[in-house]
Task: inverse folding
């Protein structure tokens, strides 16, 4: 724990720039993004951790790139799908734990251009389409590396990859910063950097002040987040929660994670895998995905929803179908999500509230009673309308707050959204 404390102390002087503060506001407004886990591991169709879980040593794993030839990869279609779903940004794995770069890194030939028959810069192609279609691109970067000899001493994972029992930790950190510099100076303006893997060596000296300073220097608007499952360190611009809503503590790895005042994001899979898994058919329903988006917004968090493309470059049809259906919902009810903040009423099993200006949106997700009592509405209510058709909703003020007469749900209606217009603030 001492090393981690030193990391935090070394960065206490960090003050967000105006560019960073503006980007944070944009991020909180965006609410919905696409997560993409894609790499040579997709060839085996068993998730992104297969090098560790099977396990596969470095020599054998080095054969995988020879089979990665995604001739059906259409970055324009990927971006268009994200936009049609109502997503405002994309976060893609530029390097996962296997250390394989999905961009044209000049610091190693362990990359998609040098090692695969495809021979094209995946990150560059996607970045070009994001810029063209007006959607922000974030790059996921794994600090953990199962391929590099210099990732030493080893952490909790990566002990069976056949690397020598030696290495130069400082050299690895220099290499990591070098690849980050490549990403930040080659592909235009980025939305930010999404770090993962620090949990593998939580007490190591990661030189975070240097790395975060490099990012903020090269692109002041680029937001930094880290999936270390702890309360954010100084220098980070948003807090992420893996497969959990803020404060939920439903996963064994995040029991110590507090909720900070930074912008928040929760990430989740569409089935039960991040990378392409050919046997994973445990798909979440469209209704469940919409509920997750709404519950995240009610807790003042974005929803980063994952797809694991197939090795041929296509996003599997089960994902496309669900994203298309979610897009129909966001097109109709997006005003209750985008640009809002978590509402004044405490979230509960029944649902959540979001708010923007003098409007509070009541999202009734799971409630079968005729009336719903809400405590915490800060001012008098001028009107209440059902967002789906603009019809009026009966309400009455009581000492404890507000009582709504909830309209019956229509067939397959996921969220009964009621817009409350409040009296002007005094």
Result:
């Amino acid at each position: 724990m001492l090393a981690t404390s030193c990391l935090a102390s070394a960065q206490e002087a960090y003050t967000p720039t105006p560019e960073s503060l503006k980007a944070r506001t944009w991020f909180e407004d965006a609410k919905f993004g696409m997560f993409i886990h894609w790499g040579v591991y997709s060839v085996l169709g068993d998730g992104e951790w297969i090098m560790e879980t099977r396990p596969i040593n470095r020599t054998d794993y080095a054969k995988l790139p020879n089979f990665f030839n995604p001739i059906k990869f259409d970055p324009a279609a990927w971006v268009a799908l994200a936009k049609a779903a109502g997503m405002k940004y994309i976060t893609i794995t530029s390097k996962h734990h296997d250390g394989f770069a999905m961009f044209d890194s000049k610091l190693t030939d362990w990359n998609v251009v040098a090692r695969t028959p495809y021979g094209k810069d995946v990150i560059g192609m996607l970045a070009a389409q994001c810029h063209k279609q007006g959607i922000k691109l974030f790059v996921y970067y794994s600090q953990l590396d199962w391929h590099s000899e210099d990732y030493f001493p080893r952490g909790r994972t990566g002990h069976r990859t056949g690397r020598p029992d030696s290495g130069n930790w400082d050299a690895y950190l220099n290499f990591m910063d070098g690849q980050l510099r490549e990403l930040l100076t080659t592909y235009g303006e980025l939305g930010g950097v999404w770090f993962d893997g620090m949990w593998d060596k939580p007490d190591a000296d990661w030189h975070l002040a240097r790395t975060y300073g490099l990012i903020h220097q090269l692109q002041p608007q680029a937001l930094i987040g880290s999936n270390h499952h702890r309360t954010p360190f100084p220098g980070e611009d948003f807090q992420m929660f893996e497969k959990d809503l803020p404060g939920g503590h439903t996963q064994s790895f995040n029991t110590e994670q507090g909720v900070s005042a930074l912008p928040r994001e929760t990430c989740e899979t569409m089935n039960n895998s991040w990378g392409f898994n050919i046997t994973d058919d445990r798909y979440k329903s469209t209704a469940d995905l919409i509920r997750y988006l709404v519950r995240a917004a009610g807790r003042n968090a974005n929803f980063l929803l994952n797809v694991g493309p197939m090795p041929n470059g296509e996003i599997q049809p089960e994902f496309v179908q669900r994203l298309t259906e979610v897009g129909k919902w966001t097109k109709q009810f997006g005003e209750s999500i985008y640009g809002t903040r978590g509402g004044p009423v405490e979230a509960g099993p029944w649902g959540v509230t979001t708010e923007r200006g003098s409007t509070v949106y009541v999202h009734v997700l799971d409630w079968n009673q005729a009336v719903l009592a809400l405590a915490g509405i800060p001012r008098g209510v001028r009107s209440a309308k059902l967002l789906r058709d603009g019809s009026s909703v009966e309400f009455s003020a009581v000492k404890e707050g507000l009582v709504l007469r909830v309209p019956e749900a229509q067939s397959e209606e996921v969220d009964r959204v009621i817009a409350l217009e409040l009296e002007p603030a005094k």
User: Anything to note?
Assistant: The two ends are 48 Å apart (CA to CA). Residues 1-11 have pLDDT under 50 and may be disordered. The chain has two domains: 2-340, 343-422.
